[in-house]
Amino acid sequence: MRIDVAGRRVMTEVVQVDPERPSQEDIARAAECLRRGGLVAFPTETVYGLGVHALDRAALRRLFESKGRPTNDPLIVHVAALDRVAPLVVDPPEHAAPLAARFWPGPLTLVMRRAPAVPLEVTAGLESVAVRVPAHPVARALLLAASLPVAAPSANLFSRPSPTRASHVLDDLNGRIDMVVDGGPTQMGVESTVLDLTVDPPAVLRPGAISVEMLRTVVPSVRLATVRVVPDGAEPAASPGLLILHYAPRAPVMLYQGEPAAVRRAWIGAAHKAEAAGMRVGVLATTEDVPLLTGVPVVIAELGSEHDVDAIAARLYAALRDLDAAQVDMILARDVSRVDGLWRAVRDRLHRAAKRVTVID
Ligand code: TXA
Ligand code: MG
Which protein residues have a CB closer than 5 Å to ligand 2 (ion)? Predict the structure, then answer.
């Protein structure tokens, strides 16, 4: 809960907008709040972001405080259009223009050399800056109206799953931020792809909604950064800002690798054992799993069909939050073996949320 100078409680204002056609009045109010240094959560096509005037150092400090985010984790700067990127970067690399032309507006973040105008608070002291032009009509309208570069991390408390609905933002940040622009659930559900263009060949630092295969249609040399995801989160990040244990619900996530039927048998065994020990167990299940878990003592969060990666990505964070809300003590989940398309991003997020990976053979 924030307290203002007069000692009053400061509540977070929620503004409901039409996700396709937000009212200009509502957008103008949110834009004004940003211009005055306020913290405004808004929907993007990936997850909700917590926006702040990217050139306002005091506002940036409030942002890190409100999220409990370590200041060594750099922020993405969001702008309304490609022509707003130039003041933020120096020497844009040759691949930037064709990638921007193909994927912006959209869920691709490009890391380039920082212009002196970008505060080091935004970049966590790095000489590079991450930039993206989001595609969501509400984000676009807000960025246009504010006419500012807007630094926006995902609008969750640090290390909690990213928010895909306004209610998730409020669960984490009610009273800590000024406003939430509620444009309904976000479409993609996993964060943007982060591509480092300061190295050659360019390296994917975070897999996301734009797949490696899609990037390679424009820049064939794109490679994956070698970030080792360590389940127990013990090792330091291989690249600045890429923290290992992330996106995690409160309950530990146990990932199982193996054939679907074998994984289900392992889940059922684990569930009965946990029940005997007085624990509540949650399962991240596919639609195909659900009928096979009848009578098993578990709380089920259904992701969608095992054949529908878009649905699974869109539901993943909400499902983790639903299981937390159901107060489970442990979450059983299935690892993803595929790495094509969006599967890579889903796999990455599962591993970052996981406490332990068990291989069933
Ligand atoms: O989809 C998204 O990207 C969402 C929406 C709100 O746009 N934003 C988001 O922001 O996921 P955040 O703060 O949760 O993740 C940003 C990540 C950092 O953790 C870091 O890994 C990377 O982007 N990043 C930012 N600036 C960087 C830089 N200069 N060099 C390397 N990585 C950077
Ligand atoms: Mg985040």
Answer: 154
